[in-house]
From TrEMBL, chain A:
Protein name as it appears in the record: Bardet-Biedl syndrome 10
Superkingdom as given in the UniProt entry: Eukaryota
Family annotation (InterPro entries): BBS10, Cpn60/GroEL/TCP-1, GroEL-like_apical_dom_sf, GROEL-like_equatorial_sf, TCP-1-like_intermed_sf
Organism: Pipistrellus nathusii (Nathusius' pipistrelle)
Signal sequence bounds: none
From TrEMBL, chain B:
Protein name: Sjoegren syndrome/scleroderma autoantigen 1
Region (Disordered): 92-125
Record-linked InterPro entries: SSSCA1 (IPR009563), UPF0148_domain (IPR051888)
Length: 721, 199
């Protein structure tokens, strides 16, 4: 059957890829030597590089590698784990399919009907996987795993400061699995130093991370021919160009950015320039010369000693620049220009058209500029004064060969991506079954900034209840209708929601059961509005334990405003009533807060495996049980490989049994290896793998074509993978 | 585990028998070997194609000289061949025994149609023939006895008997000996029935 064939073929491909990456995963992993189809040799431990270097024409292999590449672009970590996990999941699915096949074959069904039955079954499995990923995974991670999380911040309060030692452990674990053993401690130390030099204050971290992530190519310089230990960090920016004119200067130095030639042209494009005589030509040239001279003079008057140009300036400009003592750097790449703009807030100079105005408006202060010689190439070393939270520093990466330099650069870039994800809160949301009377809500904490998913899709306005025993001042809330739709991960079908929005009055009595009675009835909207997230949601402490606490919220929309009144855990339980079912479910919002880490060595996998199996035991739906069991068993594949080489007390069965014992007796888990890994990274990896698997499983047919199909706008074109 | 709701009968699934477990284990090991070989070749610069081998279903590889290569067929022994009774003596014996065990209460009265084998390898032919003979059991002769036919049959039987006894003398394996004894018995019985026909 074609659909089964997809899983079988995918399993073959995944197994072949798994044998390649399993040798280099983990701190004990070795380098893998790969011959690229061009004949070059690649020696690496980096999963993403290895997979990209393989010559794969099989469509399923290309799908997998594409999924991994896009995952790496976002998170910077987990290519090898991705393949291993995917392989184990496919094995689990195939085992289930084999069992099912026997019972299917025994039935006396027509072949055609059986084919469609198989296809539908795989679609069903794919849907079950996605439902699991959006619902159960979030629930398990939020409720059970949360108590095991550690933090790289030294205190969980708002004024949190980074704990240096934990940060170092995190980076060492990251680089230990990626860079060769002889270099990894040096590189992780380099990265640590760079981080602390660049990130001045803790508040603007996100912006700084974004900048570094986007412009990492410009912030690092690769030098071949020197040992790796010669790598260092330089303050300021290193431009990959040399000075066209260099006039050293001191004191108050300003710089200007130009994106066009200073010398005016004879004519602009699109217009005609008519010359009638030689004299006219001479006059035009003279005018151009005078103009250039005047502009350069005015630059000097404004103390602009350095001109950064993205285009090549003509010789006349260079001549006058030298005369006036202005240094010029030409032909800068657009990425460097945008980096300078982002750091200094400088905008390119707009050259005045009229001859009278020579006001140079946008210039920036620089500390210094000088030529830099690295090996045999010359660069410009620029000391910029930053207006954003990023203090510009540059890494000079040395290595004996170009390949090694590139690998280290990629590893550092990946580390920044990983840190960027770590320092962000990751939202979780799931449905829980609640009974009306004994509703005990878990702490639902909702960050203001991260509430995009709700803010984007929430339309409506709030209706005040008809009977509300708590509401006293009824006249204050606007009487409008509410119709809320919440989408999560685009899989969960939209459900109509009833929101609990509490109006606080001094007379509200704190009681857990009160909340269930204070239900605002939502009716269909006559007019719809976008609800502002900051009006609706409250910032709270994400690391508190779950207790049933009363929420006093002053709800206001238009005339209603929400503020947090009391209690440590603030929550906004949103009651969903799906149209098909009669039972009511509660939509819980939570998050993995920034800085959550776990010890390395398969901790996350073993914990999730244990809690997932526990959850599955209490579950009633058969497809959830099946998917949960497959995933739980597949999760163990990763620690199995990590502990493959260990013997005796440190072998995987021993570790597993010890971990189970500590979990069952509610003791804190002790990690045997030093090193930390980011929880949000692991979680995102899991969701990526499940999404990729869901895609693969629903492939019914692979059609190979010779060429890419042209852009046809009717719906009948065949699709190629 | 029911996925289609009520259509799949959960209770009809039984855990695999020991033989099946062994087969599964062998198949898994074979798959692992194939995967590691394929991984090696990929690292050497071979290209993983989108096609599968017609014989064994493994993904094909292509080297830089554009030659297509199937890891399983050209490096590992076939997995399926050893289970085919027409191509392997062991498989024939096990099939024979299974048939005998299954039909122990009621003896075969008529000839049972032998499974049609694909092109057999020459070195397995003898075993195949022996296996088929053992599975079939003694076959009553059909049609009017013809003197030439009888003579040639008798000759063939005697030849087989001689060969079987020679093989039995030199055989070291228990299975082969049992098989050869069965062949000798069958030949003797066939000769007996031939003699009855002649008279």
């Amino acid at each position: 059957m074609a659909a089964e064939g997809a899983v079988k073929a995918a399993l073959q491909v995944a197994q072949a890829l798994e044998t390649i990456v399993s040798g280099c995963v983990g701190p004990e992993g070795r380098q893998v030597l790969c011959t690229k189809p061009t004949g070059e040799v690649l020696l690496s431990r980096d999963g993403g590089r290895l997979l990209a270097a393989l010559h794969l024409e099989h469509p399923l292999a290309r799908v997998m590698v594409a999924c991994i590449s896009s995952h790496l672009r976002k998170t910077g970590d987990g290519a090898k784990t991705f393949i291993i996990f995917l392989c184990h999941l496919l094995r689990g699915l195939e085992a289930v399919a084999d069992k099912e096949k026997d019972s299917l074959i025994s039935k006396n069904i027509q072949t055609h009907g059986r084919y469609w039955k198989t296809c539908c079954r795989w679609k069903f499995i794919s849907q079950a996987l996605l439902t699991f990923q959006t619902q159960i995974l979030d629930c398990v991670v939020d409720r059970y795993l949360r108590r095991h999380f550690l933090s790289i911040f030294s205190s969980p309060t708002k004024e949190r400061s980074l704990c240096r030692s934990s940060f170092k452990l995190l980076l060492e674990a990251y680089f230990g699995g990626r860079v060769g053993r002889n270099n990894h401690s040096f590189i992780s130390q380099l990265m640590c130093d760079y981080f602390f030099k660049c990130m001045a204050c803790e508040s603007g971290l996100e912006e700084a991370f974004e900048l570094v992530d986007d412009c990492f190519g410009e912030l690092s310089v690769g030098v071949t021919g020197l040992p790796v230990s010669d790598s260092r960090i330089l303050a300021g920016l290193v431009l990959h160009r040399d000075f066209s004119v260099y006039c050293p200067a001191g004191g108050d130095i300003r710089t200007a950015l130009v994106t066009e030639t200073i010398q005016p042209l004879f004519t602009t494009s699109g217009s005609e320039f008519i010359l009638n005589s030689e004299a006219q030509f001479q006059t035009s040239q003279l005018w151009i010369m005078e103009r250039t001279k005047a502009i350069m003079k005015s630059l000097q008057n404004h103390n602009v000693k350095l001109l950064l140009s993205s285009v090549k300036q003509p010789d006349l400009v260079i001549y006058y620049a030298e005369l006036n003592g202005v240094s010029v750097v030409e032909c800068l790449s657009s990425e460097e220009i945008s980096l300078i703009q982002r750091i200094t807030g400088l905008s390119p100079l707009v050259l005045p058209q009229a001859s009278s105005q020579y006001e140079i408006s946008s210039t920036a202060l620089v500390k210094f500029y000088k030529p830099l010689v690295l090996r045999s190439k010359r660069y410009v070393h620029l000391g910029l004064i930053s207006t954003c939270s990023f203090i510009p520093h540059c890494i000079v990466l040395c290595g004996p060969v170009q390949g090694l330099v590139e690998q280290h650069e990629a590893a550092l870039h990946g580390a920044f991506k990983m840190l960027r994800q770590l320092f962000k809160d990751l939202d979780l949301s799931y449905l829980t079954q609640t009974s009306d009377q004994n509703y005990v809500p878990s702490p639902l904490i909702y960050k203001n900034r991260e509430s995009n998913q709700l803010a984007d899709t929430v339309n409506g306005s709030i209706q005040r209840p008809h009977q509300d025993p708590v509401e006293k001042n009824e006249g204050e809330l606007a009487k409008t209708h509410t119709y809320l739709k919440v989408y999560s991960n685009s899989v969960v079908p939209s459900v109509e929601l009833e929101t609990h929005i509490f109006r606080s009055t001094p007379k509200v009595t704190p009681a857990g059961t009160q909340q269930t009675d204070e239900a605002l009835r939502c009716l269909s909207a006559n007019k719809t509005r976008i609800m502002d997230d900051h009006d609706l949601f409250i910032d709270g402490d994400p690391t508190t334990e779950s207790t049933a606490e009363n929420t006093r919220i002053e709800a206001s929309y238009e005339n209603v405003s929400i503020t947090k009144m009391g209690g440590k855990g603030s929550m906004l339980p949103v009651r969903c009533k799906s149209l098909e079912m009669g039972t009511s479910q509660s939509y819980c919002f939570s998050s993995i807060s920034a800085g959550c880490v776990l010890p390395v060595g398969g901790h996350f996998e073993i914990l999730l495996h244990y809690y997932l199996l526990n959850y599955v035991k209490k579950c009633q739906q058969s497809e959830a049980i099946m998917v949960g069991t497959i995933i739980a068993n597949a999760l163990l594949g990763i620690p199995k490989i990590l502990y493959k080489s260990k013997r005796g007390n440190q072998s995987f069965p021993q570790v597993y049994v010890r971990a189970l014992h500590t979990l069952q007796t509610n003791q804190p888990m002790v990690g045997s290896q030093t090193g930390l890994e980011s929880v949000s990274g692991k979680y995102q990896l899991l969701t990526s793998v499940l999404q990729c698997l869901a895609k693969i499983v629903t492939i019914d047919l692979v059609i190979s074509i010779k060429r890419q199909p042209q852009e046809v706008y009717d719906q009948e074109s065949e699709e190629e993978l | 585990m029911a996925l289609n709701g009520t259509e799949v009968d959960d209770f009809s699934w039984e855990p695999p028998t020991e033989a099946e477990t062994k087969v599964l284990q062998a198949r898994r090991e074979r798959q692992n070997r194939i995967s590691s070989l394929m991984g090696d070749y990929l690292l050497r610069g071979y290209r993983m194609l989108g096609d599968t081998c017609a014989d064994c279903g493994t993904i094909l590889l292509q080297n830089k000289q554009r030659q297509i290569y199937c890891v399983a067929c050209q490096e590992l022994d076939s997995d399926v061949d050893k289970d085919n009774p027409a191509l392997n003596a062991q498989a024939a014996l096990s099939q024979a025994r299974e048939h005998q065990l299954a039909s122990a209460p009621d003896l075969p009265s008529g000839t049972r149609p032998a499974p049609q084998p694909p092109v057999p390898r020459p070195e397995h032919c003898e075993g195949a023939a022996a296996g088929l003979k053992a599975a079939q059991g003694p076959a009553p002769p059909a049609g009017p006895p013809n003197a030439d036919v009888m003579a040639s049959t008798r000759e063939a039987l005697l030849q087989k008997l001689a060969w079987a006894s020679a093989e039995l003398g030199s055989s070291a394996s228990l299975e082969a000996s049992i098989q050869l004894c069965g062949l000798i018995r069958a030949c003797a019985e066939a000769l007996q029935s031939l003699q009855q026909l002649q008279h």
